[in-house]
Model the fold of this input.
Amino acid sequence: MAKLRCCHRRYGAGGIIAALHFSNFHERRLSVIKKSSKEIGLVVGSVRGELLLGSVYNRLSASNFALDSAVALFYISATVFRKPNPASGIPIYLQIEEQIRHAIETGALAPGGQLPSIRSLAETLVINPHTVARVYRDLEGQGAIEIRHGLGAFVAEAWRERVRTDEMRSAQKLVRTVVRQLKALGLEEDEIRRLVEAETVEHELVAGRP
Amino acid sequence: MDTILETEKLSKRFGGFEAVSDLNLRVRKGSICAFLGQNGAGKTTTLRMLLGMMRPSQGLGRILGFRIDDEAESVRIRERVAFVAEDKRLYDYMTVQQILRFTKSFFSGWRRDRESELLRRLDLPLGCKIRKLSKGMRTKLALLLAFARGSEFFILDEPTEGLDPVATEMVLQIVVSLASEGATVFFSSHQIAEVEQIADHILMIHKGKLVLDSPLDRIKDEYRQVQAVIHCPVQNRDFELDGVERVYVDGPTVSMIVSHNVDAVMDRAHKMNAVSVEVAPLTLKEIFLETVKGRP
Amino acid sequence: MLLYKAWIESRWRFICGAVAVTALSILFVRLHPILIPQWQVALQDPYAYKPRWLPLGVSDYRFYIWHFLFDFRLQNLWVLFAVVLGFGGLLREHANGTAAFSLSLPVTRNRWFISRVLIAFLETTVLAWIPAVVVPIASVSVGQSYSIGQGFAHGLLMAGVGSVFVGLAAFLSLILRGEYTPLVVTLAMLAVPYLVLQEWARRVSWARKIDIAHVMAGAWLLTWGDVPWLSIAMVCLLTVLFLGLAARQGRRLEF
Done:
């Protein structure tokens, strides 16, 4: 328990699960995981942690999920996906698609890695399951992920990711230059951000994104 | 069956006052459908008619294929539909344990796993008399009594009213969880932010009439606010185009709420030599306010 | 489970009634040795007020019990509790906000009504039989005896005929909205005719046939030959009428 508490202080909820994962904890029986999850719930101390754990270990007992992948999924859910903002101008499904694409491009979601099930992502982010289903469908259409029937959704293989990473790197250089120029013109960071957002939003909207 | 709830010209008159008129609702199986409307717009009256608490003055309604105005069929509906009313008061003289035992006796599909999970998460004390519970706890208990029934259709009237943010998020998460299992949820709410978060279909009622019936995605994709600066005199009827819901003119600025056909509107603005045309998205709250504002 | 709910809902009212009935029965039993000497003195006094039944009251303990309990105080008390136990139901639940929950359950209006009224009948019958048990036991302490059989017979007559009051309370509960309004109105409705009719029946002999209180009391010594079958049948018909009207009203109510 003390070790878990220390882990939480330094790395947050994700850190605890990573610690569990890497210490071969996943090889123990389900009842032990359940007991420790309750302890972890105490340590995390936030309702969100309890919620996420609740949904994970319910899924564990409901379907015969391999324990280590379930634990790894939890790690991903807790840190990769941010709750979308429903009131922003950007539709929720676009926000999630963007998050997943970004995660794939930067390598946070490894190629071939498994994405959370539609149900668990919907429950984690508290959004409509149809929205998640749509996100996965769209991403599959774009070739970013593969949906394997009965098994789940997986990040597509390496070649796409490598291409995007290159594009991302040159894009980053471009952005750095533009931002430096705008700052030289005397614009504040807030103003720059607003300009970029307005530009991207209008472009998406006027271009009639599906 | 794809449609789990449908009404045809459903109406309710109280003396000379028409609380609900000609309502044609359709709720698709598996959807999380939100029912929006101001207080007194007819939401609660509609829900009461659906559950057999009130008889329609006119029109028909069916839930799961059963008629809402026939008592025997209404009982069959209630066996499979879980309803939580706006007033979430429960029997004061019973304890939490007693009302659980009482309620579960009516439902053969009662989910014991859900019951114990929710008792734990919602932190409800079994031995406590209901009269001693706070309003928030009573709401949570009322919701638990519905969620654990194992129903395929949930009708919730203001489910998160009076709940603190933590409990609210928990309830929304449970609703999402139910929908993931294939249940259909039809709920009314004043918390538009919540609606935007989890609903996939919106039904809006105003003064007893249905004024909006659309998937949320389509609303968010198509509703726009178009602002144009036009330096020549503009009248409202210059923008009387299909899709323009409202036009506001203030000096050279023309601001429009558009429900579809944005391209045509922008074209018109450009034809009138607009100096600038900006298109911005609208939140559901703004769409709701604009839809009910100033309607006769 | 509906019966269980109806029971929990009315439990305290029933217990109060049971305590009151028991106390009243014991009170009158204990009063007997005090009253008899007073009455004997009054009988000798040519100027004292002597009701017609006084000699019988002095000579026969069974008449005494019948007069004060089944014909008078106990009957009044019982009718009061019959109304208190008979009122309630969905309209009352509507007044205190729980109707929406009850009506969301897969239960017909008829079932709600029947289960509640059934429990009310059971409770009022038990209340009517408490004296049958209490009086014989208490009578021992004042050196008298009272037949349990007579007690049960009187109790049955009282509860059977008095069921009309339960029916009336149940009916008014589905007509008048409000948490306690039906109770107050029923009691008001009873107080006047009950008292007026009784006064009138004292003077006019045929009025006794429609005086429910009189029918409920029956003869002081009940035998098979004495049972007023016609009156009982008329009252039962009235009860059935009230219940039928109430059930119909319940089905038509809008919440």
